[in-house]
Amino acid sequence: MNPKKEAILNRLVWLAIGRPLLAIPVLTLTLFSFHSVSDTSDARLFYFFIVLRGCLTLFYFIVFKGNKTLHGAFIALQLVLDLFLESVLIGVTGHVESPFSILYIGTIASSAYIFYEKGGILTATAALLLLGMTVFFKEIRSTSFDTPILFDTPYRLFLHALAFYSVGIVSGLFFSKIDEARTGLSKLKVLHEDIVKSIPSGVLTTDSAGKITSFNQAAFLITGISPVEAIDRIWWDLFSWAEIQNQYKILAESGISRRFEGEILKRGNTARPCFLGATISPLSNGEGETVGVIGIFQDLTQLKMMEEEIFQKRRLALMGEMAARMAHEIRNPPASLSGAIQLLQKEPSLLAENRRLMEIALGETDRLNAIITDFLLYARPNPLRKMWVSLNALLGESVEFIKKSESEATQVLLKMSDPLLEIFVDPDQIKQVFWNLAINAFSAMPQGGVLTLTTQNGKDKNGKEVMLFTFHDTGTGISKENLPKIFDPFFTTKSSGSGLGLSIVQRIIQQHDGTIEVASSSAGTTINIAIPTWKKS
Q: Strand pairing of 449-459 and 410-416?
């Protein structure tokens, strides 16, 4: 709620509560005013207005309790009716000497309470005019026209005027200052609540025993624990985190903020581990006394996963470097064996059976060399040598090379959206990608089929402009069990091969800041590659 509207509503509440309380002094004044009212029509009129004022007071209270969207006009109407009733009571109980003239003070103060100085001055003026009219008509009824009004009456009116305006101005200023202070505090409170609600960190406060006294929205989002469930619970019991209690003891002894980390179970449909980093500090009041503890915590789960991922990558990179060096050393003996076998094959006395065994040995040596070559390419990729190259030249050469290696039962189709478009890539490595994908497609179509390569301009999920390459074959497809593993190094379903072809493809595409996605069914496999396009400057 708007702080200003909230302040007005609070004043209306107190005004509605104060009206029934005014009935007590009214009844008391009534007892002391019996001597001024004889048993005449004035007395009956006096009692009638006493009852009427009480009924109106009850009516105001009931209406306000049922509807708190009252406007200033309705409050002003109440004040006018009060002034009128008070004037009637004063008129039948001694006019200027009536004890009920003090009721004007209450109405003026009420007006100043709602409308501040302006309301207090206007109501004081209205009260003075009504009192003067009451006195004037009373004097006319009790004296003849040639009898002058006594000096005492104007003097009493002057004293009433002084009292009315003093109360109106002073109470108006007083209530105005109070409202400004209250509004400022309300705004400060709202700002404080908005800040606590808006910060992404979980914030809670506890007493010195660890019982939670406040719990913000971010704390709920991080832990899955609602504020209703958290309030009045012991923090370390609620989180099932004993380390918090230990840190409380250290904080109580040292008075210095403590930082610690740990794991809790996040509530929800399925509980899952959540790694938190928390800081606890003493919570002090305005007098500097420690009244509890404030705790601030963040969800470090993603950060922890990133740290683990970085550590894993460093570990794999180290292992890859070691393996690459070993592979390089392993590559030399097969080369020597291959040379020696080729020399032995030239011996004229070599038996046919031995010649066949040597051919098998040479084949296996070549296969081992190919595996080591692929592994070195994966473990120690060559640096990119990017250049501007047209799609027509890049794909034309690749498709021609692919067509020469295909069987007659397999067709290769090329569909380019803009053959003249140039992209900034390493042409040799992109050709390697196309070749590896084509080899896999041909393996999936042993009885023949169609391999279609399509290019088109598009945008990725982040709205960045990319060139989309789509490879679609009509082969047997990849099973659901094997689909998540196809980019794993050394994974293969073939009887021969290193299992590094798609791993190398993924590595090259990632080096180009691109993405690769695979979808497969019994009707074939589709591979989508997206490589960012750059404007040629």
A: parallel
Question: Cα(142)–Cα(154) distance, rounded to whole angstroms?
Answer: 16
CATH match for 305-379 among 1.20.58, 1.10.260, 2.30.30, 1.10.287: 1.20.58
Give mean pLDDT, residues 27-43: 51
Does residue 293 sit in helix, strand or coil?
strand
pLDDT of residue 147: 45
- What tokens appear for 264 in the block? 């809790």
Length of the chain: 537
Q: Average pLDDT in the 285-291 region?
A: 81
DSSP state of 68: -
DSSP 430-445: HHHHHHHHHHHHHHH-
Share of the chain above pLDDT 90, in %: 9
Q: What is the dihedral of CA 381, 383, 386, 392, to 10 degrees?
A: -30
**Type of residue at 486:** I
The confidence score (pLDDT) of residue 409 equals: 67
Closest of 261, 275, 270, 269 to residue 222, by C-alpha: 275
Q: What is the DSSP string of 10-50?
A: HHHHHHHHHHHHHHHHHHHHHHHTGGG--SSHHHHHHHHHH
Residue 151 has pLDDT above 90, yes or no: no
What is the C-alpha separation between 250 and 262, in angstroms, rounded? 17
Smallest CA-to-CA distance from 110 within 16, 47, 23, 202 is with: 16
What CATH number labels 200-299?
A: 3.30.450.20
Helix (H) or strand (E) segment spanning residue 413: strand 410-416
pTM of structure: 0.44
> Tens digit of pLDDT for each residue in 196-227?
777 888 999 999 888 999 998 899 989 999 98
